[in-house]
Specification:
It is built from five helices and no strands. The chain has helices spanning 2-21, 26-37, 56-59, 79-85, 103-114. The chain is globular.
Length: 135
Amino acid sequence: MLLIRITIAAIALIQLARAEEQPVSFSRDIKPILREKCVHCHNQKTLPGRVSFESAKKAFAKNQSGQSVIVPGDPDKSIIVIALESSRSHERSMPQTGQKPTTDQIQLIRQWIQQGADWPRGFRGWIKPTFRPGE
């Protein structure tokens, strides 16, 4: 019986390790999060000249303080991760309104950045902002 439990635990650990090794897909995993949680504010119409998640070119640009919002390979230096992981009371916490991404969604963003933050150029990488009534 003990051998069976150990075997099941070992298989579960192997499956978990394989899941973490799989590349995070921008189109499948990251784009929906940015569309739902970020781009309605972080676009050039709403915040001209500020951080925008409408395209790779805009998202990888430095913010007004000269810091990189997304640092491929280094989620701990990426402002997006710092902002998403900050508590609501912190001045850098994002989003400032609405629901924060779930812990799993933030982990996906963190993993995507760790894997190099592959963001397609052109139409596939563009995120159209959806404006809410009254905006």
